[in-house]
Amino acid sequence: MGNNFVAVDLGASSGRVMLATLEGGRLELSEQNRFENGPVESGGSIYWDIRRLETEIRAGVEKAFSAAGDAGISGVGVDSWGVDYVLVGADGEAVSRPFHYRDSRTDATYEEVCARLGRDEIFRRTGIQFMQLNTIYQLAAESAEHLGGAGRFLMIADWFAHRLGGRPVQEVTLASTSQLVNPTTRSWDTDLVGKVNPAAAPLLPELVEAGTATGECRGAPVFASASHDTAAAVAGCPGKGDDWAFLSSGTWSLLGVELPEPVTAPEALAAGLSNELGVGNTVRLLRNIMGLWLLQECRAAWSAAGNRLSWPEITALAEKADPLAVVVDPDDPPFLTPGEMPGKIRAFCERTGQQLPEGEGATARAVLDALALKSRLVVDLLERVTGRTIRTINMIGGGIQNELLCQLTADATGRRVLAGPVEATATGNVLTQAVGAGAVAGWSEAREIAAASCDLAEYEPRGSSRWEEAAERLRELTAS
Length: 480
What we know:
The protein is α/β, with parallel strands linked by helices. It has 2 domains: about 220 residues, ATPase, nucleotide binding domain (Nucleotidyltransferase, domain 5, 2-Layer Sandwich), CATH 3.30.420; about 220 residues, 2-Layer Sandwich (Nucleotidyltransferase, domain 5), CATH 3.30.420.40. It has 18 helices and 21 strands. A hairpin with a 2-residue loop joins β13 and β14. The radius of gyration is 21 Å and the shape is globular.
């Protein structure tokens, strides 16, 4: 009899509930429910619809238990995107809808907190990349009155794990994205929290490591899985040795390496790198790149204009477009907020003295080239800061279904790309539970299971001086 696990995997654009069976050193995943996710606008702000998400999650969990039948369920775990949180009242209910990380309320607090506390000091204490969406700046925007109505603070995945029966605790990989955790001690920096917003300090929950059992859902253990989706994805990544990097490709692209210790030296700060905590006392030194959000927003704009294109159709148009016709920085600040993405891309090109991309194919190609080029720059930064040589990029997540993006990543970086698995996050979620349950001996065995459970697609770089020239142009644009 195999071990059955339920993985609730919440992304910023969609969610899914998976039933996983672990047997004979392999993992089989079966989708039970998939649903859309996205911001809800109200009163000039944007929020997450956690009530609808909970309804979808519970429907998927119900299907998974039914599908498992008499074999039963050995564990339930939840992972999600980072930084966002729910304020929980004394009655265990949310006191309000949680803000979406793209809400503009952090525009002012980001600069204020950095000026007041100092970027060098914040990075020395947390090791996290500076982004205005981070929890630290969200909490700074909270009023004492609003926080005073709450008894606890839980980040998104751990809120839903609590709703499914787990204790109200916070898993450490997800907590680390807040920019409020000491990456060496793997604990809250309570002094920093107090300086950011004194009313937030009493709300901090107990931190637990990935794989900790926290309660029961219908008689099955609820585990704090690797609650951050990138931590889960890297746990499900079949990397070997120390010459590989991971690239989790989805709404966001997260490119980095796995290390035994954080790197909080000034060089890492200058490189814009982030020390997010991983499973098994590891650290993921990485850089956040805006990711396929740009193309998702372009597709939404085209659809609103009456041109409803499928993802394969968009990729086919991009393949026919001129390569490297323009060089775009995917992390340009205007790209962070939703709406009118094709116009924002054209505005970037106009501002930087480049020709304007005309039509859907040229715009899509500009985005895909931009993501590949930014990966090139980040790989170079990682090698310089760590002293490692990166020979292989293990590309995981939904973005690997775009074969053009995988090949362009190999071409731009000059490294071999191994793509797979698509459902790396759900895979890592389940394997974390399995380690916690004792069904898997440890993280090395978990990686072996991940490798045995998927077919990897290999992409070799096609050398071209045009990529070198474009990478240098992007360096110039990002340095200005």
